[in-house]
Amino acid sequence: FGSRPGGHGGAAPGECAPFAAHGMSALNRAQREKVANFQAVTGAPTKLATEFLKRYSWSLDQAVDTFFTEGHSFPSQRQATVDAKKLDAFFRRYRAADDDVIRSEGIEALCADLGVSTLDPVVLAVSYHCRAECMGVFTREEFAGGMQRLGCDEPQKLRAKLEELRGALADRGQCKEIYAFTFQFALDQGQRCLPVDLCVELWKLLLRGHFALLDAWLSFVEQRVKNAVPKDTWMMLYDLATQVKPDLSDYDMSGAWPVLLDEFVEQVKSTSL
């Protein structure tokens, strides 16, 4: 549930709420994608997401940081009723002895009670619902908010929810939201890019069922990429994995793809000749 490197997911512009509302039709593709990613991380309505991004000249990181700094919160509208006392006991069962947070030891204990490994991708889905900010830590607010969204006030209920969460990971649209969240979630404070070795572990967790060329991509990355991976490359890889044919026949080399993806496609095509 947030323990680095691999215990641990934005949304596609076309897979979110209609963009005709609140003037979304006037935005370009990059702006629409930023609005969708902002909503996936924060849960904010389209209009508010657009206002925050405009305020910060479409800097997604600045807009998201300010959103949380100002204390905004938009829980899901459809929540199961949870018992506040049970939820408090649920949190206290795993919290650290010296602080009102759940740390890595508590996360490991929770995963043991759920019958899953800390490296199971389903923990990313739970962290996504908790809107967790850092790997390896759940604040009381994050944990309580996540369990309220999921309608779980005890470990047994969360365990019963795991198959539904696995279903979300298998769904292309829902997985993209978790995938986009994971980039922000896995960042160290003050950083804007993820170390490539961490990306490799996360790709193995999140893309296995969505990317036919995953093994070829991982081999390519391990040979060619020495630097950290920016968010643009991270997100565009998901589009490559889920929107382009496995034989790459419909990949547009003149499109707005990152250079790294162009190089990968060139290599795959050259080796398949």
From TrEMBL:
List, alphabetically, the Gene3D superfamilies matched: Cullin, PONY binding domain, DNA helicase RuvA subunit, C-terminal domain, EF-hand
Its recorded name reads: Defective in cullin neddylation protein
UniProt GO BP: protein neddylation
Lineage, top ranks: Eukaryota, Sar, Alveolata, Dinophyceae, Gonyaulacales
**Any one annotated GO CC term:** ubiquitin ligase complex
* DCUN1 domain mapped to chain residues: 82-269
Q: A GO molecular-function term, please? A: ubiquitin-like protein binding
Keywords, in A-Z order: Ubl conjugation pathway
User: What this chain does, per the record?
Assistant: Neddylation of cullins play an essential role in the regulation of SCF-type complexes activity.
Protein's UniProt keywords contain Cell division: no
- InterPro entries xref list: DCN-prot, DCN1-like_PONY, PONY_dom, UBA-like_sf
Q: Which domain of life is it from?
A: Eukaryota
